[in-house]
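Researcher: Here's a chain I'd like modeled. Treat it as a single chain, no partners, no ligands.
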Amino acid sequence: MNWELIKLRLVMGLSGVTIVLLSVALLVGIAELLSGGSLAVGLYLISGMLVLVLAINIFQWLFGPYMINAAYRAHEVTQDDPSYGWLVDLVSEVARDNGFSKPPKVYIAEAPFPNAFAYGSPIAGRRVAITRPALRLLNKDELAAVLGHELGHLRHRDVELLMAIGLIPALIYWLGYSLMWSGIWGGAWGERGNNGLSLMAIGVALLGVSFLFQFVLLYMNRLREAYADVNSALTVPNAAKNLQRALAKITLYMDPRTIAKIKKSPTNNMVKMLFFAPTDDKIVREASDADVEELIEYWRSYKPKPWEDILSDHPHPAKRIQLLDKISQSQ
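Model: Modeled as a single isolated chain. Structure tokens:
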């Protein structure tokens, strides 16, 4: 068993248990506050709110794939497609490597930036989408590595897992929102007096807690993204190297000035990291192999600061490159 994989699973497991325990303790405390000492009444109120939040999330989960397709103008491709039949074969190959009895449906997404994502539901089935710039930018081996990452999300049921964890801040948010406005209206009409102010204060505090929980969600998302990287490296031949190259190519595509920045070019020191998505194929090809390898080498030795990815749902690229190196070295 790969030690890096064991360590990642332990961190995810401990993080999940910690989140559940803290959430239960928090919700029990909220129930006590709401009930005025009668825990059963408070739990009843929270349960009612939880059912509402759960219903909304289940609806989004079941019908979300159709909304995603509409937003990205995604259309399905099949093996008979003269232009993209090879992509369906590639997805099927990676799916077999990942133990899927039936490969996910394949979609081309009309977005102006290179990306791939996995999604699905019991109604819509499993799906994977690739944008046109990604198809132009990445070669077949790099695409296979990216697909190994995306199918890792489906294999690990990350959509369902993160939705379940996301119920906690959603529940806390709506409890806080309801209590805040209950306190405001109660105080405004003089019906509750000081109790209205107390409810408003509790509501505002819960809104703050729900905001802090978003950092927990981002942390869990980063762990699952790292887990998907590992999945690709362990299931697709030569995926570690090809996934590194794909990540570097996408970064250079989004911001062609990256190489100048890591060299600390005087003309670029004042320029912040911006998302820039050129659509000209000629510009895409200008990201040379030398630039790709230079960026990967830079990431290999770079140590990200703790705050550099705290607001991101993906690990810092340097962390991803270094993890993939460790996985490939231990195979």
